[in-house]
Specification:
It is globular, with a radius of gyration of 21 Å. The termini are close together. It is built from 14 helices and no strands. It is mainly alpha-helical.
Length: 340
C-alpha cells in the first residue's frame, strides 16, 4: 500500500485563509442551491423569507417561503451535513490505513449498511424509520466482523483483508436480494442505491444532526494520533498512543456515522475518497487542519452536486450518486495512474 506523506510545512496563515475561504464558499453555494430550482427565488429575498412572519409578506413571497423553508433549506443543510460526514470518515480511514485510496467502504462498513437497508426494503420496510435502524445494524455487524476477523492477522492488514471479504459477502447477498425482489421492490432498490438527498427534512435533521455532530467531534479529537500514524503504527505506539484502542474507536465511530447516513441518502460514492485527497494535496497531511478542511470541502461538494442533480433535468431530478460518480470516477482513475 502507498503510505500517505508526513505533514508538510504549509504555512498556518495559508491554512487559516483556506478554511475561511471554504467556509465562505460553502455559505455562498448553500444560498445559490436554496434559491435555484423549478421555482426560482431571488437571492436578495432569502433573509426576509427566512426571518419574516408569513402574514407580513405578499402572496408570491408566501409561495417562495413555503418552498424555501419546507423543502430546500432542510435539504441543503442535510446535504452539507452528509458531505461533511462522508469526507471526515474518508480522511479518518485514510489516516488509519495510511493510504490515500481508503474510505469506509474498504472495511465493509458501507456495504454492511447497504445490506441492512436492502433487506429492510425487501421485507417491506421502505420508510426511513425502518431503513435507518436496519442500515445501522448492518454497518455495526459488518464492522464487528471485520474487527474480530482482523485480530487474527498482525497489524492493520488483517482489518483490511477482513473488510475485503465482508464486502464480497455483502455485495453477493445484495445481488441475491435484488434478484429475488419484485418489480416495486426493484424500483425502490434502484432509486435508493443511486443516492438522493430528497429525504432531507427538518424532522430528519432534528434526529440525525445532533448525533452526527457529536460523533464527528469525537473523531476530530484524535487528530494527534492520526498525525502520529503517518510515522508508522509502531512509531505511534512508541510515542505513547494506544493504537489498538484508537483504531477500534475510530472504526466504531465511523460505523456509527455511516450506518444511519447511508440509510437516509442511499449510495453516494467518491466524496469520502476524493475530497480528503484533494485537500491533502493543497494543505498537507497535518490532520489538525486536514480534517476540518475536508469536512468543509465535502459539504461544498455534496451541496454543489445536489444543485446540479436538481437543475440539469428539470422538472425531473438526477440521482445524486450518478453526479458524484461521474466526477469522482475519472478522478479516481487519474489518482491510480498518477500514483503508479
Amino acid at each position: 500500500m502507498t503510505a500517505i506523506s508526513q505533514p508538510s510545512t504549509t504555512l498556518p496563515q495559508f491554512s487559516n485563509w483556506l478554511l475561511w475561504a471554504l467556509g465562505g464558499l460553502l455559505i455562498l453555494l448553500m444560498m445559490l442551491s436554496a434559491s435555484s430550482g423549478a421555482v426560482a427565488i431571488p437571492l436578495s429575498e432569502l433573509p426576509r423569507l427566512i426571518f419574516s412572519p408569513r402574514f407580513e409578506i405578499g402572496t408570491e413571497q408566501q409561495l417562495w417561503q413555503s418552498v424555501l423553508l419546507d423543502m430546500r433549506l432542510p435539504r441543503v443543510l442535510f446535504g452539507a451535513l452528509a458531505g461533511a460526514v462522508l469526507a471526515l470518515t474518508g480522511a479518518a480511514m485514510q489516516a488509519l490505513f495510511r493510504n490515500p485510496l481508503a474510505e469506509p467502504g474498504l472495511l465493509g462498513i458501507t456495504s454492511g449498511a447497504s445490506l441492512g437497508a436492502v433487506a429492510a426494503i425487501l421485507l417491506g420496510g421502505g420508510s426511513l424509520m425502518v431503513l435507518a435502524p436496519a442500515a445501522f445494524t448492518g454497518s455495526l455487524i459488518a464492522t464487528a466482523l471485520a474487527y474480530h476477523l482482523g485480530k487474527h492477522y498482525q497489524g492493520i492488514a488483517g482489518l483490511l483483508l477482513a473488510g475485503i471479504a465482508i464486502n464480497a459477502i455483502c455485495f453477493s447477498l445484495i445481488g441475491l436480494m435484488t434478484y429475488m425482489a419484485d418489480d416495486n421492490q426493484l424500483r425502490s432498490l434502484t432509486f435508493w442505491s443511486m443516492g438522493s438527498l430528497a429525504g432531507g427534512t427538518w424532522s430528519l435533521l432534528s434526529v440525525l444532526s445532533p448525533a452526527l455532530l457529536v460523533i464527528s467531534a469525537l473523531i476530530l479529537r484524535h487528530w494527534r494520533a492520526m498525525n502520529a500514524l503517518l510515522l508508522g503504527e509502531r512509531e505511534a505506539q512508541h510515542l505513547g498512543f494506544p493504537m489498538k484502542a484508537i483504531r477500534r474507536k475510530l472504526v466504531l465511530l465511523t460505523a456509527l456515522l455511516i450506518g444511519p447516513l447511508v440509510a437516509a441518502t442511499g449510495g453516494i460514492g467518491f466524496v469520502g475518497l476524493v475530497v480528503p485527497h484533494l485537500i491533502r494535496m493543497v494543505l498537507g497531511a497535518d490532520h489538525r487542519r486536514l480534517l476540518p478542511a475536508s469536512m468543509l470541502a465535502g459539504a461544498i461538494a455534496l451541496v454543489a452536486a445536489d444543485c446540479v442533480a436538481r437543475l440539469v433535468a428539470q422538472p425531473a431530478e438526477l440521482p445524486i450518486g450518478i453526479v458524484t460518480s461521474l466526477i469522482g470516477g475519472p478522478f479516481f482513475i487519474w489518482l491510480l495512474i498518477s500514483r503508479k
